[in-house]
Amino acid sequence: MLDSICSAGFSHTRSRRAVVEALCATPSGATPAKLRARGRAIHTPLGTVTVYRTLELLESLGLARRIHGEDGCTAWAPVSLAHGHHVICRGCGRAAEFEGCDLEPLLRRVSARTGFRVSEHWLELFGLCPKCIQGK
Amino acid sequence: MLDSICSAGFSHTRSRRAVVEALCATPSGATPAKLRARGRAIHTPLGTVTVYRTLELLESLGLARRIHGEDGCTAWAPVSLAHGHHVICRGCGRAAEFEGCDLEPLLRRVSARTGFRVSEHWLELFGLCPKCIQGK
DNA sequence: TTACTTGCAAAAACTTTGCAGGCGC
DNA sequence: GCGCCTGCAAAGTTTTTGCAAGTAA
User: Fold this and answer.
1) Could you tell me the distance in Å between the CA of residue A8 and the C1' of nucleotide D24?
2) Distance B106 CA to C11 C1' (A)
3) Which tens digits make up the pLDDT trace of B39-49?
4) Higher pLDDT, residue B71 or B124
5) CA–C1' nearest nucleotide, residue A48
6) Residues 105-124 in B contacting A (C-alpha not used; CB under 8 Å)
7) Which residues in chain A have their CB less than 8 angstroms from residue B120's CB?
8) Does the CB of B49 fall within 7 Å of any strand C atom?
9) B68 or A5: which leads in pLDDT
10) How far apart, in whole angstroms, are the C-alpha atoms of residue B40 and residue B14?
11) Kind of pairing between the strands at B117-128 and B84-89
12) What percent of chain A shows pLDDT beyond 90?
């Protein structure tokens, strides 16, 4: 992921590496505060501000994305798939990515009904992950 | 909507009416701060706290819901349909509700692929509303 | 060297909590 | 009158901004 940052014209720095690694270490999503805590294992002086700014940068490059839970939307997760969505576990909060959503028929129906021209969408699923299912 | 609150066992108060009317006046969604501003036209001493608490109440009754935009998720909108989703205009920020989403095939596929047992979902569309399309 | 980055500190914005007084029923 | 409800004030969180020092290239 750092490579993508560099080839986009941004510097390769320890701080960025720390944030990127922390993010990739938690594909299930993590808040800026947690990312900072994790990132400090790699680059100790890592500051909160840098985490925010790096996330912003990653988002603009399409490499990270917010995860929206119904309680809030402060968690971030790395984006690995071209057009992925997340499914979030109600039990432990982990998130998994999945590919493909095939919403075309729906989009056409909504356009016809509301008059909106729909260009993007955003889908998130909630449920229980395999571990939490077993645990019950 | 106030009726629903009352029949659920909560009091009919001016403050609640103010929040409910402000909310219904902005089906496109509004932040707590904006709802308070609008609500003050109805009940002047309306406080921020009451707006938050009323929204919480409405949410628990299934009458209001957060709208999650990619920039944040501080806006709230009334829920009028049984199982509605929102389509949000990138131009003016308005939201419209639509019904039905037929995600069953997708849910099955995701369950099979990730092992998650999916129980809820959450979908939001983005695009341009009829007015904004014309305006361009 | 030169411009981009960083991290601290402080400010700002947003949300929640405590509590005395007010209001619905 | 009783108990829920409200609004102010204050505290707690989260996020953004300003700026001098640091670092990649």
Assistant:
1) 15
2) 46
3) 999 999 999 99
4) B124
5) C7
6) 105-107, 109-110, 113-124
7) 125-127
8) yes
9) A5
10) 10
11) parallel
12) 48
CB contact under 8 A, A126 and B119: yes
In tens, the pLDDT along B85-117 reads: 888 887 777 778 888 777 888 888 989 989 999
Q: Which residues contact A39 (CB under 8 A, 6 or more apart)?
A: A15, A18, A19, A21, A22, A46, A51
Q: Which residue is it, tokens 């129980």? A: B119
Share of chain B above pLDDT 90, in %: 47
A90 C-beta less than 7 Å away from strand D: no
Confidence at residue B98, expressed as pLDDT on a 0 to 100 scale? 85
Q: How far apart (Å, rounded) are the C-alpha atoms in residues A135 and A130?
A: 9
Encoded tokens for B112: 């099979």
| CB-based contact, B5 to chain A, within 8 Å | no
Q: Are strands A84-89 and A117-128 parallel, antiparallel or unpaired?
A: parallel
